[in-house]
Amino acid sequence: MIKVSIIEDHPDFRRGLAYLLSATDGFECIDMFISAEDAIENLSGKEDLVLLDINLPNLSGIDAIPIFKKKYPNLKIIMLTIFDDDDNIMKAILAGADGYLLKKTSPSKILTSLEEGMEGGSPMTASIAKKVITLFKNYIPNKSGNFSLTQRELEILNLLVEGLDNSSIAEKLFISIQTVRNHVRHIYEKLQVHSKSQAVVKAIREGLI
């Protein structure tokens, strides 16, 4: 059971998210807040994950991330926002966000993204993932590293960088999701990383894509 709290000041959107979570097996909405300050003060600490808007009254969602992370180190934070500009994306990631979704994301994709986040991934709307790649390419020099990745592993790594989750990769490559998981595990071992976000950053930094 993934326990989620929502920090969102728009009442209709907040209620819609709560209903989506409550109506889906494997998820539970345990609390809702209209401001970051209220959440900082009153989070129960029982949450696995927080869905966090950026444009909130007073303290912004981005400014609240380090406070949440300090108070609840194991808490996963997924941004859910309308903002798709480079500045907000980079600030959120650097502040410690575990994922970045746009509010136009479909309900089913939001749910799979939450599952991905709990598995150690960094779920992002596809358009956001592409922006992140561009941002990293602009600021991180390529080293053209060689980690003995097979052609299939490189193919899957590229799809990870594009923001696809395991099920989407399996569907695109016409292979089973378990085969994808095995390849991803081998990629992690060869790159000496422990999560999708680390793999993506290293792939860009080392010029593997």
Walk me through what this model shows.
Helix content is 53%, strand content 13%. With 209 residues, the chain is α/β, with parallel strands linked by helices. It has a five-stranded parallel beta sheet, sandwiched between helices. Helix 4 links the parallel strand 4 and strand 5. The model has no long low-confidence stretch (mean pLDDT 88).
Question: What's the quick description here?
Answer:
The protein is an alpha/beta fold. It has helices at 11-22, 36-42, 61-71, 86-95, 107-118, 126-139, 151-161, 166-173, 177-191, 196-205; strands spanning 2-7, 27-33, 49-52, 76-81, 99-102.
Main sheet properties: 5 strands, parallel
> Which of globular, elongated, flat, extended, rod-shaped describes the shape?
globular
Measured by DSSP, the beta-strand proportion falls in 5-15%
**Quantity of strands, as a count:** 5
The CATH topology of the largest domain turns out to be Rossmann fold
List the helices and strands and how they pair.
Layout: E1 2-7, H1 11-22, E2 27-33, H2 36-42, E3 49-52, H3 61-71, E4 76-81, H4 86-95, E5 99-102, H5 107-118, H6 126-139, H7 151-161, H8 166-173, H9 177-191, H10 196-205
Parallel strand pairs: 1-2, 1-3, 3-4, 4-5
